[in-house]
User: What shape does this take?
Amino acid sequence: MAEIHLDGAVQTAEPEAVAGTTDENVVTATDVPGTADAESTAPNRPMTWPPTGADLAKIGAAAGLVLMATATLLARRISSDVPLERGESLKLSVRPRKVVGSYLRSAGLWELDRRATRFSVTDRRLLVEEGLVQRSVTAVPLGILQHVVLRTGPWQGWVDVSFPSSSGGRAERIGPFRSPVARQFAAAVARGGGLTVDEVVED
Assistant: This one.
């Protein structure tokens, strides 16, 4: 900074800028090649609703990843062991079959319910395990079963069992299964309860 003496007074003045020099601590967008108008040229297309095309594909992919991750965590959470009593032996354990219509109606969320459901037959009991968040197990002694009905269609089948309850009687539908699996399950239940299987063929 220079000092200028005028009539005995001292004043200060800033030096003039030297051509070709810049402040090294300040960088502007125009100093860096290719950065000018970067924001104005960047794509900034908002997502339309309802989504179509690429946006719909992205949403579908994201939903699929979330579903797979949730199903994996659920499969780990649910114990792979059937809750057996001391001395009890497992005869058959199956889950409901995959049904396309159920997937479409629930946007794929039915898979979580399917993985959380399991039907088992032991040498003593019929076990029905259900529930995503809160697990419940319905155990029916095979000795109290009254009827076993196999209902089969072209692609799948169910097993209906009836047994006495506090309200007088109760029926439980088990499935859906592929038809051969439904037949196998019905035979295991009936054999354990000393019953015969009544088969109903549905169109």
Residues 8-32 have pLDDT under 50 and may be disordered. The beta strands are 2-6, 9-13, 90-94, 118-122, 125-130, 136-141, 147-152, 156-163, 170-178, 197-201. The chain is about 30% helix and 30% strand. The two ends are 101 Å apart (CA to CA).
